[in-house]
Amino acid sequence: MSASPSLQTIAIVKATVVALEEHGGAITGAMYRRLFEDAGIAGLFNTANQKNGAQVHALASAVLAYARNIENLGVLGPTVERIAQKHIGYAIRTEHYPYVATALLGAIEEVLGDAATPEVLAAWGEAYWFLAGILTGREETIRTEIMTHEGGWTDWRGFVIAERRPESEGIVSFVLKPVDGRPVLRHLAGQYLTFRFDAAGLPGLKRNFSISSGPSDDYYRITVKRQADGGASAFLHDHGFPGAIVETTPPAGDFFLADVPDRPIVLLSGGVGLTPMVSMMEMIAHAHSSARVWYVHGTASREAHALDAHIRELAELHGGTRVHTFYERRGEADDAEAGLVTIEWLKANTPFEEADFYLCGPRPFLRSFVPGLIEAGIPSDQVHYELFGPTDEAFAA
User: Fold this and answer.
1) pTM for this one?
2) Is residue 43 predicted with pLDDT exceeding 90?
3) Of 109, 126, 139, 247, which is the active-site residue?
4) Largest CB tally within 10 Å, which of 55, 79, 274, 386?
5) Which of 32, 66, 90, 97 is catalytic?
């Protein structure tokens, strides 16, 4: 493969940016419609993200970003990594890429009509396969690396719910152990598991849940909030009792604690976004005794606050962690702050300019804090975040 698409292809793709700005959502919507005519391909995707339109919007943003930066793909490195990690989670492989190519080019022709000349379609075909080569190469590298570690696997694997533990109002933890009794891959603290529920009678339902336990050789823990429209969370809350079987691919994700933290660490979460932070705290307590850590969490109330006692035990074990809790409802507890976490509070109470910030929470929470931290002077490479659901380009700071 060449180091970049041809100059002609770059020029043509750049020339389509205006059309993509206007019609990108229509193109990706038509692409998914075409793609899902094949039931086998449709089964690879998260149906919830299709129904609410999130994936269509996210892909439209990604395609537009690719067109804008096709001559300088280095700026898309984080996006490429995130997509590759998602593909590991959904067990998407090289043989699936031709289906997407056919659907995408057909959608461009359908939506743009006469403007989709043979030259435009040829250029987008070359551009697609160039990017596909980058992604499949990275995905193969990730899978090869996974299999070099004990407990590694690369497709769907059965896990039994070994333990169920209520954590707060509407939040339950589930301890998962492999059905085959073999070891599991030690995840990076902050990564997620991707589940499918076909065996539970819910075909097509897939969901990512962050791992809320530290790295282990024999189990994972996830901590799940019941969502009003969440088929996966409802199934786990209603039917996820010891002995139930679920299926998951190996841990994935580009959001994880640094192997050797060399700056102070601020773990900042909202609501059930605390789950990867708990995994990080377990890792910190047992492997990073010299780290300086600020654990800052905001939630609605004490009743909604999960794993608080566990975090405080870990902080005491570590000895270098300061725990700060914010409850939106005032007067909840003497040991909690009232109201919401703010940038101003972080400036006054954490080693603000020195720290690495790890953030996870609902979209409004991150839409506030990710650009807010960067606008306040924190370098973007010190702001690490995980978003529940598809990430769109407009979200990135």
Assistant:
1) 0.93
2) no
3) 139
4) 274
5) 97
